[in-house]
Inverse folding.
């Protein structure tokens, strides 16, 4: 998937190709919706969890549309579980108005992805990124936050991550989002306290957030809600 392009850390880090049914295909970067981001931290991230309520996908799709929370370190991989709208979303079992969701990773190797599942606009999709004990592998775990049903998982070596942000990515002259997105219960845990991490928060394209707070001396950072307006 392409770069967030709206915050200094993530703009320089999130350069790549979109999550694709064919990982080797590259797409034209067109435009972006709203976003909220944090980073870089003086430490590094060891866990990040959020729940997205995506709103209905466009009933028809001209290009490719992606919603995602992503993490990067500014020089390497982009970890990004993606909610995807393609001209034909039947590849994951989705019907009109649904998204395909899957764990995904962009890097110098191209795009790698896990298994995919269909999700509806009112679903609460919990996305968690966890750094494993070797300090290199990241596990992406995607579940329905209400039912606990497993939706996708993916594990790959990526190394330390220092920034987190949301993306609304519109490629190939896509049909933009027709409903607002909301992220709730976002929590980012750092390896060590960074009391200035909250100062790096940024928003773009009329996105808003509420309830930024920290605990454990600046090691754990939380955002109550992130609201991303519809593009159309």
């Amino acid at each position: 998937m392409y770069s967030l392009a709206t915050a200094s850390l993530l703009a320089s880090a999130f350069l790549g190709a979109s999550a694709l049914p064919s990982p080797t295909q590259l797409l034209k970067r067109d435009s972006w919706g709203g976003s909220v981001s944090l980073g870089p931290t003086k430490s590094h991230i060891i866990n990040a969890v959020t729940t997205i309520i995506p709103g209905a996908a466009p009933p028809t799709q001209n290009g490719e549309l992606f919603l995602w929370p992503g993490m990067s370190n500014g020089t390497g991989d982009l970890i990004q579980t993606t909610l995807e709208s393609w001209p034909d979303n039947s590849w994951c079992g989705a019907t009109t108005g649904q998204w395909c969701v899957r764990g995904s990773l962009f890097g110098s190797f191209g795009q790698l992805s896990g298994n995919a599942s269909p999700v509806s606009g009112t679903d609460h999709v919990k996305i968690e990124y966890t750094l494993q004990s070797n300090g290199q592998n990241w596990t992406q775990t995607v579940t329905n936050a209400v039912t606990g049903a497993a939706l996708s998982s993916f594990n790959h070596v990526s190394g330390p991550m220092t920034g987190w942000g949301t993306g609304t990515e519109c490629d190939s002259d896509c049909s933009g989002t027709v409903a607002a997105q909301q992220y709730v219960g976002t929590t980012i845990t750092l390896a060590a306290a960074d009391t200035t991490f909250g100062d790096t928060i940024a928003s773009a394209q009329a996105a808003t957030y509420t309830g930024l707070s920290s605990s454990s001396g600046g090691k754990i950072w939380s955002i109550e809600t992130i609201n991303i307006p519809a593009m159309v």
